[in-house]
Amino acid sequence: MSLITSVIGAPLIPTAAAFDSFWDFQIEETLTRCLLMREEQTSMGGAVAITRVDLTAAELRAAAGREKDGSAARRMLALAMVLDGADRKSAAETCGMDRQTLRDWVHRYNAEGLRGLHDLKTPGPKPKLTAEQAGRTGQAG
Fold first, then answer.
1. What does the alpha-carbon distance between residue 116 and residue 140 come to, in Å, rounded to a whole number?
2. CA-CA distance, 36 to 46, in Å (whole number)?
3. What is the pLDDT at residue 41?
4. Which of 3, 59, 102, 110 is the right S-S partner for 55, CB 3.0 to 4.6 Å?
5. What was the pLDDT predicted at 35?
6. Is 6 helix (H, G, I), strand (E, B) or coil?
7. Taking a C-beta distance cutoff of 8 angstroms, is the pair 83, 57 a contact?
């Protein structure tokens, strides 16, 4: 036993604890949580697939070129990029939307085809007059 050890009662270089500091513990905890979430996401399944096969990527691009509605054209181009093998994030960002929004449009395209890529018409405001009132004023439609 050295003189310093006998005076202090502990070795000069203490052994490291499981975590050197509170921050190391926080980092370890965060990494564990991230890994658990990642495992849950991979077990839930992958990205939503484009199951509709009536149009190829080239045909979607051609349809986008003919489309007068710019929003629908962007959606067609995003789907064409995905069919060509681009990852969803880059396809969505290139076409000015979020990855989740692209996922929603994939669902609509799978269900309705090109028609599903157009915005739905809103019904407009409710009439202020009842049918009876409109009939009395001669505004019945």
1. 33
2. 16
3. 43
4. 59
5. 56
6. helix
7. yes
Integer Cα distance of 78 and 100 in angstroms: 13
Position 107, amino acid: H
Distance, in Å, from the CA atom of 61 to the CA atom of 80, rounded to the nearest integer, reads 6
Alpha-carbon distance of 110 to 82, in angstroms, equals 13
Q: How many residues are present in the chain? A: 141
Of the candidates 108, 106, 110, 135, the one whose C-alpha atom is nearest the C-alpha of residue 119 is: 108
- Per DSSP, the three-state class of 80 is helix
Are 140 and 131 spatial neighbours (Cβ–Cβ below 8 Å)?
Answer: yes
Ranges of the chain with pLDDT below 70: 1-47, 139-141
Distance CA(38)–CA(36), nearest Å, equals 5
From residue 126, alpha-carbon distances to 8, 17, 120 in Å are: 86, 69, 17
**Which residue blocks in the chain are alpha helix, DSSP H?**
3-8, 22-44, 57-66, 70-83, 88-94, 99-112, 131-137
